[in-house]
Design a protein that fits this description.
Strand content: 5-15%
Number of strands: 8
Structural class: alpha/beta
Number of helices: 13
Shape: globular
Strand order of the largest sheet: 3-2-1-4-5-6-7-8
Distance between the termini: 38 Å
Largest sheet: 8 strands, mixed
Radius of gyration: 21 Å
Helix content: 40-55%
Oligomer: single chain
Amino acid sequence: MSGVDKKLLSVGFLGSGMMASAIMDGIISNKLVSGPESISCSDVFDAPLQVARNKGIYATDSNRVVCERSQDVIIIAVKPDIVVNVCRDITAVDASRSALIISVAAGVTIETLEQNLPGRRVVRVMPNQACTVGQSASGFSLGSLCTDDDRAVVQSIFGSCGLAREFKEFLLNAVTGLSGSGPAYVFEFIEALADGGVRVGLPRADALQLAAQTVKGAAEMVLTTGLHPAELKDRVCSPGGTTIAGVDELEKGGMRAATIQAVKAATRRSMQLGGISESDIISKCNL
C-alpha cells in the first residue's frame, strides 16, 4: 500500500457478523496489521464478540470505544437501517476523524455516508457471501474526499479475502445483481446439477461433491486461462457427443436467458432499495 505502513494500521469493525469476521480473518492472515490486537470490533450480540476474542481481537459492545481505538480504518458492517445511528457514534469520537470509513452495508449510498459523516473519507463496498471462505468478488467505489492511498487500503483489505475491483458508484447496483446475488444463482445450479446426478443413479452425497467440484474447477479454468467461457465450452463439446446433447437441453430450458433476467431483476431491486425512482430505473438504466 503506497504511503501506508501495513503493520501500523489499526482497524475497527462496527458490527461483527459473519461478513465482518471473514474480513478480519483476511486482514490477519495477509498480515495487513501487526496482529489481531490491532483490530477492534463491536456488536450488540455477545456470540460474535466471543468469536473475535478467541482470535485475539479486542471486542466490545461499544461502537465509540472501537472508534477511539481505530485511527486508520473503520468498517461499518451493520444492517442498512442502523447505519445512520452508527455514523453518529463515529462523529462523536474526535480521534476517528483521520480514519477511512468503509461501509459494506447494502444499498447505503456514498451520498448518505458523506451527509452523515461530514468531512470524512468514505468508501462503499459490495462484497459477497464467498468472503467467508476467502473467495469474495467485491466491487467498491470511493467517496469524493478519498485519496490514492485510500484506494490502496481498500484493495488490500478486500483483496485479502478475494477479488476487489473499483467501479463508478452507479454500477454497484449491477455488481449487486451479478456478484452480490450471484452465489445464490450458483448454489441453485449446483443443486440442480446434483439432482441430475441423483436422477441418473448417483448417491446424493457423491453427486453433490461432483457438482460443486465441477463448478469450482470450471470457474478456475476461466480465471486462470483467460479464455472466453464460450471457447472453453466448445473444447468440451465434441460433435455429436454427450456434452453437446446436454448443452442443447440447457438452451431449450432457457438457462442463459433466465440467468440474464435474474441479474437484471436483482439489479433493479438494488436500485429500488437504494431509493432510485422508477422512472430513472427505466429511462436511464433500461431496466
